[in-house]
Design a protein that fits this description.
23% of the residues lie in helices and 26% in strands. By secondary structure, the protein is an alpha/beta fold.
Length: 350
């Protein structure tokens, strides 16, 4: 089957219209008409070849909302007409310890987890193609139920990446009532971290380098906002945080935040910079038994949990809708942080 899509043919060419193949609907497959697809910074890195191992043509997109158009004979969890989501994964080995634990993003199989785009395809070394297209076919295990009102579907799309990337560490490190939680950065990831931590019942402190974002952070639900370039503001929070979620994908001084953690507390990184952070000081870890950790998206069970939680609490992403033809302009604006807080493509415009 052929679908319309937008692809980069090389790291130096803009995304442009093309046709891509999709497999026929297999016994356990779900065929999906894509309605909306969020635009993640990872899409830009991948299309421009800024990460190793990119293969072309490359069709980005891993924040997918769509409608089921066909199902395989053995599919039991989805029906034709259902509204569903597909995130960053469309496959894994399904039998290693991580997969058994519902943490497919850490799959220990020989090929690891299968990315929605630029992933392995049946072991042949071919590419998988993402959501900048009008359709996709996915194994039912990796298709998620969407229960938000249909009027909110565009704003649900970024939950499939930005939402789960922040939810997974907040849940793992037990954000909730009685916990003081820091969110570093107020962008695509950070704005979701603030919303989720607040809804989980935590006391939320947002960190930003820009005083102009103070009111934005409060509007998102932050109880307090700290300008991280102000050393006096930072000092008032020394040794007071139970957990800090650092969403910033640019190199910066990690020690400035590590000293804000209580004894035995953790700061978790979810942003991948294009060059290394300055090395953190070991003393800040040793003398308070603090931990510096990382976290990668989330498994399928916790992604469904996050989507259900967000539907129950009326949580969506702040989005700006664009037409497919404007993706390169969106990439340019994204590089300038000129979006609040996530672009979403209306795939009817493809």
């Amino acid at each position: 089957m052929q679908y319309k899509a937008y692809a980069a043919q090389s790291p130096t060419t803009p995304l442009a219209p093309t046709n891509i193949p999709r497999r026929q609907t297999g016994e356990r497959d779900v065929a999906i008409e894509i309605l909306y697809c969020g635009v993640c910074h990872s899409d830009l890195h991948a299309a421009r070849g800024e990460w190793p191992g990119m293969r072309y043509p490359l069709v980005p997109g891993h924040e997918i909302i769509g409608r089921v158009t066909a199902i395989g004979a053995s599919v039991s969890n989805h029906q034709v007409g259902d509204i569903v989501g597909v995130g960053c994964m469309v496959g894994s080995c399904r039998h290693c310890q991580s997969c058994d634990d519902g943490l497919e993003q850490y799959c220990e199989g020989p090929r690891g987890w299968q990315q929605t785009y630029n992933g392995w395809l049946d072991g042949s070394g071919e590419n998988t193609y993402g959501g900048y297209a009008d359709g996709i076919t996915v194994d039912e295990h990796f298709v998620l139920k969407i229960t938000h009102p249909e009027s909110n579907l565009a704003a649900v799309a970024p939950l499939l990446c930005a939402g789960i990337t922040t939810w997974s560490p907040l849940r793992h490190w037990k954000a909730g009532p009685g916990k003081k939680i820091g969110i570093v950065g107020i962008g695509g990831l950070g704005h979701m971290g603030i919303k989720l931590a607040r809804a989980m019942g935590a006391h939320v402190v947002a960190f930003t380098t820009s005083p102009s974002k103070i009111q934005d952070a409060r509007d998102l639900g932050a109880d307090e906002v700290v300008v991280s370039r102000n050393s006096e503001e930072m000092a008032t929070h020394t040794k007071s945080f139970d957990f800090i979620l650092n969403t910033v994908a640019a190199p910066h001084d990690i020690d400035a935040f590590m000293i804000l953690l209580k004894r035995d507390a953790t700061m978790t990184m979810v942003g991948v910079p294009d060059s290394p952070h300055p090395s953190p000081g070991v003393a800040n870890l040793i003398f308070q038994r603090r931990q510096l950790a990382g976290s990668l998206i989330g498994g399928i069970p916790e992604t469904q949990e996050m989507l259900d939680f967000c539907a129950e609490h009326g949580i969506t992403s702040h989005v700006e809708m664009i037409e497919m033809k404007d993706i390169e302009l969106a990439f340019q604006r994204m590089q300038k942080s000129d979006v609040k807080y996530r672009f979403v493509i209306d795939m009817a415009t493809i």
